[in-house]
Design goal:
The longest helix is centred in the middle third of the chain and has 31 residues. With 698 residues, the chain is of the alpha+beta class. The protein starts with a helix and ends with a helix. The chain has 20 helices and 24 strands. A hairpin with a 4-residue loop joins strand 2 and strand 3. It folds into four domains: 151 residues, Immunoglobulin-like; 99 residues, Immunoglobulin-like; 161 residues, no CATH class; 111 residues, Glutaredoxin (3-Layer(aba) Sandwich), CATH 3.40.30. Strands 12, 13, 14, 15, 16, 17, 18 and 19 form an eight-stranded mixed sheet that branches. Strands 1-2-3-9-6 form a five-stranded antiparallel sheet. Strands 20-22-21-23-24 form a five-stranded mixed sheet, with helices on both faces. 37% of the residues are buried.
Length: 698
């Protein structure tokens, strides 16, 4: 009995010893950290210092990070805070066994308050740090004071004392701490092999600093920061740069001022920090004395304006022009019997409507750009509200052209609907606006290049590019205004005009049905059918009342055909008309690289349901032989990105390639790891040649 008791006690003692050893090992394995520190006088900010447990025996370093959390609208600053604010700083002279500390700074954001621009961080920020140790086998005492400036509409300067004691050789790696450290390090700009020819020129006469750089992959929406360690650089204030993009080259021009008088930056060593979408990098440069010119930027702008003119003109013959063809021809027909002066003014009013509509689009994109939202050509068709309003307007246009309603107004009254039914200049102005908005689902040669340049440049240049696009699209109207005999050359007015008008009215109603079909991406199928039934019923009832039952019968047949047409286009691949669609893989940049590493070819198709050009490419090329068989072959991976509704991932992918609209097609492969971009309008030869070229192993 006594023996069993002794045995039991020994077992319990052994278990206790094992548990103690486990707890001791866990305690030893925990990487040192300060815990979250908060100043009672300023509670919106908290901070901590954490060691990752990663040591480098060769360099005798230990990795760690400083993490700062800022509540609400509070922000702290970058190493060069801009026109206001104070950069965070740390004193660590009382530390022991530490030779030096490297502080790494994530790329900051720009903040503007009352006209004062600063650079810094909101929410939370991770500053990776490297501690250089004298002896890894001896204890280290990290004793430091962090001075942190944080601001909203007021600024507060707060101190946070840190103290840690550890022996580097005894540290163990913490996966959690390493993950946070890696997150912070991924936001720190580093030197990049993609950059070259980074130069800086100081023009003392103009008080400007100009930085030029080249990137192998080209630029999308670049931003440039400059700073340096000298007092001269620290005292200087640099404006937001004016950036000109010319292919792979950028030129950033800063206006420079200083509180200490006239700066002299010649010979200063600086850091040039660049950001372009997801790309961030930092390169050293030395400032040389010189004269700043802007001729290259001017040449680029002039070239893009020419591209925009051609793109706008070509937009008139793209597939999406058919919904507005009725309005264009109706304008010409309605000019019969008018004086040349009236014809000129009417067509100039339509052209003015086109220009004004492009300015509205530009303003819409400027607001999105300034607010940090996604921007792109035709992006308004991602909005259910926009599609709904356009559906209603096209239905009213069509019904009015079919003479289904007529509003009797007093002589001194003018409304928007009434102006559509007569020859008023305001009515033609609205028609021009409407034609523009309805044509934007299309892309065209030259158009994509011009729009990409416009959205990546400054706001005044953006308006200039969009004005050129508008003039290009309005050119047919302008030609008729300059040469009214074009409109007068048609046959004289007669019964045929009413028939043509009815034809165009039916075309406009078909457009309404197409737009209603696009709403299926935002509303349930039930509500689409309810809306279609109510609207169709009202229009057919008015057709019986105004015309005849026979006319209503023909119109109902047209409705049935048109309403089913959108469904047929989407589902015709399940019939004998076209084969089943390729087995599209969802768009993923990581997957592209994996497939290419496996020796496969990746065909990327970025599309949208509202993109008419995309539909034409699919039906006319991608689902036709021999392209279809090639996309379904074992060595080709078809990958698709659907931009019908907003998608940050797809928007980022487009912007990484300098595109702001669809369609967009790229072919990747062993011989083309960076991709072969295809033209907007596809054809069999272009697609097959790209797949063959990308698939040839280097």
């Amino acid at each position: 009995m006594q023996k069993s008791v002794i045995t039991t006690r020994m077992v319990l003692f052994g278990l206790f010893a094992m548990l103690c050893s486990v707890f001791i090992s866990v305690a030893q394995a925990e990487t040192p950290h300060t815990g979250w520190l908060k100043n009672s006088n300023h509670t919106p900010i908290e901070t901590r210092f954490v060691l990752t447990g990663q040591i480098n025996k060769v360099d005798q370093t230990v990795a760690g990070f400083l993490e700062v959390r800022l509540a609400g609208d509070w922000k702290t600053y970058w190493r060069s805070p801009g026109e206001g604010g104070i950069a965070p700083s740390m004193t660590w002279e009382d530390s022991q066994n530490i030779r030096s500390i490297d502080w790494y700074w994530p790329y900051p954001k720009r903040f503007d308050l009352l006209g004062i621009e600063t650079l810094g961080y909101k929410g939370s920020v991770i500053f990776p740090m490297t501690l250089h140790i004298d002896d890894l086998n001896k204890p280290v005492t990290f004793k430091a004071d962090l001075t942190l400036s944080s601001c909203t509409t007021i600024c507060v300067l707060t101190d946070y004392p840190f103290e840690l004691t550890f022996t580097p050789a005894d540290l163990t790696l913490s996966k959690e701490a390493m993950h946070v450290y890696a997150q912070g390090l991924s936001q720190v700009p580093k030197e990049s092999a993609l950059l070259s020819d980074v130069k800086a020129v100081w023009d003392a006469t103009k008080m400007q600093l100009q930085v030029t750089a080249s990137k192998k992959m080209g630029w999308i929406t670049p931003d440039v920061l400059v700073d340096g360690p000298s007092d001269e650089m620290q005292d200087a204030n640099f404006s937001r740069p004016k950036i000109d993009v010319d292919g792979n080259n950028i030129t950033a021009t800063f206006d420079v001022s200083s509180w200490m008088g006239t700066p002299d930056l010649t010979g200063e060593n600086i850091s040039v920090t660049l950001k372009d979408s997801e790309f961030i990098a930092e390169q050293p440069a030395s400032i040389s004395d010189g004269v700043i010119t802007s001729s290259n930027g001017l040449q680029s702008i002039l070239k893009m304006i020419l591209f925009a003119l051609f793109g706008g003109l070509i937009l008139n013959v793209m597939p999406c022009v058919f919904p507005v063809l009725g309005m264009k021809l109706s304008s010409v027909i309605s000019a019969q019997g008018l004086e040349k002066k009236q014809i000129k003014l009417q067509f100039l009013a339509s052209a003015s409507g086109i220009v004004f509509s492009f300015w509205l689009l530009a303003s819409f994109l400027v607001v999105l750009k300034l607010s940090g939202n996604a921007i792109g050509w035709g992006i308004q068709f991602q909005s259910a509200w926009f599609i709904g309003v356009m559906t209603l307007i096209t239905a009213l246009f069509g019904a009015n052209m079919l003479s289904l309603f007529e509003i009797r107004l007093s002589s001194n009254t003018n409304t928007w609907i009434a102006s559509k039914g007569n020859n008023s200049y305001f009515g033609h102005f609205i028609q021009g606006m409407f034609a523009t908005l309805l044509s934007t689902p299309c892309s065209a040669p030259f158009l994509g290049t011009a729009v990409a340049f416009a959205l990546a440049t400054n706001i005044p240049t953006m308006y200039g590019i969009f004005t050129a696009l508008a003039l290009g699209m309005a050119l047919p109207w302008i030609l008729v205004a300059l040469f009214p005999s074009i409109a007068l050359s048609l046959p004289k007015p007669g019964p045929w005009m009413s028939k043509v008008k009815y034809l165009f009215g039916a075309m406009m109603l078909i457009t309404s049905i197409w737009l209603l079909n696009l709403l299926s991406n935002h509303l349930s199928e039930f509500w689409i059918y309810v809306i279609a039934a109510i609207a169709g019923g009202v229009i057919l009832l008015r057709t019986v009342q105004v015309h005849s039952k026979k006319a209503a019968g023909w119109l109902s047949i047209l409705f049935a055909i048109a309403f089913g047409f959108g469904t047929v286009i989407d589902s015709m691949t399940s019939t004998d008309l076209l084969p089943e669609e390729p087995k599209w893989v969802p768009l993923s940049s990581e997957s592209i690289q994996q497939y290419v590493d496996e020796g496969k070819v990746v065909f990327v198709d970025v599309t949208a349901d509202w993109c008419v050009t995309c539909k034409a490419n699919k039906i006319g090329v991608l689902l036709q032989e021999p392209v279809y068989s090639e996309l379904n072959s074992a060595n080709v991976v078809p990958m698709q990105g659907d931009w019908t509704v907003p998608s940050e991932k797809i928007t980022s992918y487009l912007q990484e390639h300098g595109r702001f609209g669809v369609p967009f097609n790229v072919v990747y492969g062993p011989s083309a790891p960076n991709g072969i971009e295809l033209p907007v309008i596809l054809n069999e030869k272009v697609v097959m040649d790209a797949i063959k070229k990308a698939g040839n192993k280097p």
